[in-house]
Amino acid sequence: MRALRNPFGSLPPEVAVLTAVAFSVALGFGIVAPAIPLFAKDFGVSNFAAGAVISVFALVRFASAPMAGRFVNRFGERLVLATGIGIVGVSSLLAGFSGNYTQLLVLRGIGGLGSAMFTVSSFALLLRVVAPDQRGRAAGTYQTGFLLGAIAGPAFGGPLTAWSLRAPFFVYATTLLVAGTLATVFLARTALREHEVIAGTADHAPTPLGTALRSSAYRAAVANNFAVGWAIFGVRSSLIPLFVVEGLRLGPSWTGAGLVLSAAVQGLVLIPAGRLVDTRGRRPFLRAGAAFSLVAGVAMAFAGGAPLFLAGMALYGTGSALLGVSSAAVVGDVIGGRGGTPVAAFQMASDAGAFLGPLVAGALADTASFEVAFLATAAVSGLAFVSTLVMPETQRDPLTTDP
User: Fold this and answer.
1) Which residues contact 294 (CB under 8 A, 6 or more apart)?
2) Taking CA 165 as the corner, what is the angle to CA 160 and CA 167, rounded to the nearest 5 degrees?
3) Cα–Cα distance measured from residue 113 to residue 71, given in angstroms and rounded to the nearest whole number
4) pTM of the prediction?
5) Termini Cα distance of the chain
6) Cα–Cα dist 233/226, whole Å
7) Helix or strand or coil: residue 336?
8) Are 28 and 168 in contact (CB under 8 A)?
């Protein structure tokens, strides 16, 4: 495909603001994550109850995503974004002052609502302010912010948690409130209409979810985001530590090495992948990302030692990067840059995969073997890959839908 002329010359400054906010959110979450189960246990509860504090955040986030999408359509991305960050920040601050387990549980649930509002609105705003031929690069830049924050967060969170179980909540709240305030002030001056006129999307009303679902390209993006949630955010985080120690009989340090390698590869691929998606089309790289994830699952299933394990982790990092930018660009193409509810459904697919993946893969590892668990994960990626075989290329005709 011939490269499209970039009407901006570079990405709009709003992309940098949203990326900085994404970094702050991921950094803060990485700081507070090690403290959450330990803080819960400090109230004398069981391991199950401590885990519930983590699960309630994810559950409320998933359940409230459709509402967040409707809020975006009704009140606009910027108001929902500011409100969402504010909810997460204030709830985290109050969680640090929790006097009992119930207060901590409720406040983390409220934080899940704010997280859904932030995630849906920030991604919807990102797609709205960029031109069609910038969507891949914008998504790659935005996701790099999340990735860097997620890597840096635990490095600060561990020592901070060792010093105080409450301090990480206060630090998280502070970074969120500062970032949210600065972003709100800057984004308030954003001329959305100007961006839409330049991008050629000024006449696009918010796309309903039903309209988006009629597009096989959108369905393929959703299917692959579910597979990313299952394999990358779910199984990679939950099963890999057990697989390394119990399956490969390696030391725990190999888990860290594999996760760092996967994140490093993902970070290196994101920006070039975004450029390729904008100049060569979405479909080839959505297919390639699904194929890399499929091969990664197979490699993990047959890994008998460190070399193939590390290769599989590198493949997961490559697949995650390719899928992240290409699926985001496809969604932006299908909705013409506008549509809170399709964005919410797209995000929910990843959350659903991240929730189901560890449960199913863990059960298979318990009842059968790690090999079966990883082959099942590869099968999910394989089904997502099949969905890309029947989709049209959306870059030329953003509103392509199936009969």
Assistant:
1) 378, 381, 382, 385
2) 60
3) 12
4) 0.83
5) 25
6) 10
7) coil
8) no
Structure tokens at 59: 């559950």
Give, for 10, the enclosing helix (H) or strand (E): none
* Whether 14 contacts 190, CB under 8 Å: yes
pLDDT of the chain, 403 residues: tens digit per residue: 333 344 334 777 788 888 888 888 888 877 887 777 778 888 887 777 777 777 788 888 888 989 998 998 888 888 898 899 999 989 999 998 998 989 988 998 899 899 899 888 888 888 888 888 888 898 899 888 888 888 887 777 777 777 888 888 898 898 888 778 877 787 776 666 665 555 565 566 678 888 889 999 999 999 999 999 888 877 776 678 778 888 888 887 888 788 888 888 998 999 999 999 988 999 999 999 999 999 999 999 998 888 999 999 999 999 999 999 999 999 988 887 667 889 889 988 988 888 888 888 888 888 888 899 899 999 999 999 999 999 999 886 444 444 3
Q: Give the type of residue at 223.
A: A
Which of these, 154, 325, 316, lies nearest to 235 by C-alpha position? 316
Identify which of 233, 243, 222 has the alpha carbon closest to the alpha carbon of residue 375: 243
Residue ranges of alpha helices (H) inside 302-392 are: 306-335, 340-367, 370-388
User: 228 near 328, Cβ under 8 Å?
Assistant: no
| Residue 25, CB-side half-sphere exposure with 13 Å CA sphere | 30
Helices (H), 247-305: 253-280, 283-301
- Confirm if 134 and 257 have CB atoms less than 8 A apart: no
Please name the residue that has the structure tokens 């504010």. Answer: 86
Domains present along the chain, CATH in parentheses: 13-199 (1.20.1250.20), 209-388 (1.20.1250.20)
Question: What single string gives the DSSP state of each residue in 128-192?
Answer: HHS-GGGHHHHHHHHHHHHHHHHHHHHHHHHHHHHH-SSHHHHHHHHHHHHHHHHHHHHHTT--H
Nearest CA to 312 out of 289, 294, 334 is that of 294
Looking at residue 282, its amino acid is R
Q: Is 139 exposed, middle or buried (0-12, 13-18, 19+ CB in 10 A)?
A: buried
76: phi > 0 → left, psi -120 to 50 → alpha, else beta; which? left
Q: Which of 282, 279, 294, 309 is nearest to 393 (CA)?
A: 282
Instruction: Give the tokens for residue 57.
Output: 């955040």
The two structure tokens encoding residue 326: 């290409």
